[in-house]
Specification:
Elements (H helix, E strand, L loop, with lengths): L2 H8 L5 E4 L2 H9 L5 H8 L3 H9 L4 E2 H10 L10 E6 L2 E5 L7 H13 E3 L5 E6 L2 H15 L5 E3 L4 E6 L1 H11 L14 H4 L3 H15 E5 L4 E7 L2 H13 L5 E6 L4 E6 L2 H10 L15 H6 L5 E2 L7
Antiparallel strand pairs: 1-2, 1-3, 3-4, 5-6, 6-8, 7-8, 9-10, 9-13, 10-12, 11-12
Helix pairs in contact: 3-4, 6-10, 10-11
């Protein structure tokens, strides 16, 4: 799956440009039946602009590149392609991963849990309650997108904020992430649902580290996923079934206005702790309640801090 190619074919936006593709574009034009002046008229640019795209390292508007790309018989996007935007602060350049790999799947899972695509700007934010997870996501952003980002420390939690039209559209258009509040709108991205077991597992792991918990009362242990959108947890339940784990729910948690997907079975908890790489004590068999009893005692649960399983 070539994500750069999918992004180019999907996005029709102003102020996004393609860099490092001039040789590729030159070959397309030379092998087409169009002359440069004809292309200039079709693309509503000057002939000199077309010449610059072909013979100098000038960024090409993504809409113009997409038109030229459709003329090409070679549908492989150059490996070193970059995406740039222009703003009052200058030109900013971004790299997109060519494939849906494990790191991207984990990032998408965390974004589904404790991330947000803002509505009034191209801001993307991630919230963390422990610094190790925050640094993990910063490292992932650096490796995937060549981003040097930092975090804000609010004493009890940490926030990473990015401002990028390219990444905002990447997450929104390619991976179905809603803008603003996710309640009632979030779904497991279709690209994740149709991916390999390895990719699905990393998505689940990222989501658990954002919105999952290993909880206990005096005699009860439960491994839970929580979300405000029931549909998302139903889709997550189907994915977990593919690994042989049938969790209870989703149940509605009225007190917290959210939905819960949970298991009270010690063997299932321990197996999920292993495949999701949760570093916490092994749960002993027999420490469980029936779901109905547990729901009545939900307000007394104790959540093991995320630092314990990251």
């Amino acid at each position: 799956m070539d994500l750069s190619r999918l992004f180019i074919e999907t996005i029709n936006a102003d102020n996004i440009y393609i860099k490092n593709a001039n040789h590729f574009v030159k070959l397309i034009v030379e092998n087409s039946s169009f002359k440069k002046i004809e292309l200039a008229k079709i693309l509503q640019v000057s002939p000199s602009s077309v010449s610059k795209w072909l013979y100098s390292n000038v960024a090409i508007p993504i809409t113009s590149f997409n038109f030229l790309y459709q003329l090409s018989k070679n549908k492989r996007i150059p490996d070193k392609i970059m995406f740039s935007t222009k703003s009052g602060s200058g030109i900013r350049t971004w790299v997109l991963p060519n494939e849906l790999n494990s790191k991207l799947a984990y990032l998408l899972g965390y974004l589904a849990g404790d991330g947000c695509l803002h509505t009034n700007s191209y801001t993307i934010s991630f919230v963390f309650n422990n610094l190790n997870e925050c640094k993990r996501i910063l490292s992932t952003l650096r490796k995937l997108f060549h981003i040097e980002a930092d975090y804000d420390n609010y004493k009890t939690y940490f926030v990473v904020r990015l401002n990028s039209k390219v990444l905002h559209l990447f997450f929104n258009k390619l991976f179905d992430f809603p803008l603003g509040k996710k309640k009632g709108k979030l779904q497991v991205p279709s690209l994740i649902q149709n991916s390999s077991s390895k990719i699905k597992l990393q998505f689940i792991r990222g989501f658990f580290n954002a919105d999952g918990c290993l909880c206990h009362t005096e005699k009860t242990y439960a491994l839970m996923f929580k979300q405000s959108t029931e549909r998302f947890l139903k889709q997550l339940k189907i994915m977990l079934l593919e690994f042989g784990y049938n969790l209870n729910g989703p149940y509605f948690d009225k007190q917290n206005d959210s939905w819960l997907l949970a298991t009270w079975k010690a063997s299932t908890i321990n197996n999920l702790k292993r495949i999701l790489e949760i570093n916490a004590a092994i749960v002993q068999p027999g420490l469980r309640h029936e779901p109905s009893k547990f729901r009545r005692k939900l307000e007394t649960r104790v959540q093991i801090p995320l630092a314990a399983h990251t």
